[in-house]
Amino acid sequence: xxxxxxxxxxxxxxxxxxxxxxxxxxxxxxxxxxxxxxxxxxxxxxxxxxxxxxxxxxxxxxxxxxxxxxxxxxxxxxxxxxxxxxxxxxxxxxxxxxxxxxxxxxxxxxxxxxxxxxxxxxxxxxxxxxxxxxxxxxxxxxxxxxxxxxxxxxxxxxxxxxxxxxxxxxx
Length: 171
Prior knowledge:
The protein is an all-alpha fold. It contains 9 helices and no strands. The radius of gyration is 23 Å and the shape is elongated.
């Protein structure tokens, strides 16, 4: 009987401990979500140091920040969009490839498009190859250069003929 009571106390203690852990984890997850959201909003700040420190913290957070950064690609603030692109490039996770491809297609800003192409290359994910190859035909020399660099990062051998043709065209 004493053994059963002892085992019961131990099991109850373990259950109590883990239920407390779950509550703490839930609180921390909510707190982190709020922090990440705040940091992504700071990417759009007019203050360079605020943007820089937010970007650094988001990079350190890593993968959990990705959904918030992807959402920031849709922001009305160009600084927030650009900050999100830069941080996604530092995280280098292939999870972002579809969202970056979509954002690239919707963007009207060559600076952002150029940065997105480079991030697509940094991911190392070949799903981005066709979009990057198409970007070689963009009228912007910056986007063309970023595309060539990104294709080099992907080590995409299928891009070689198009890169050679582009090089010869520049003569």
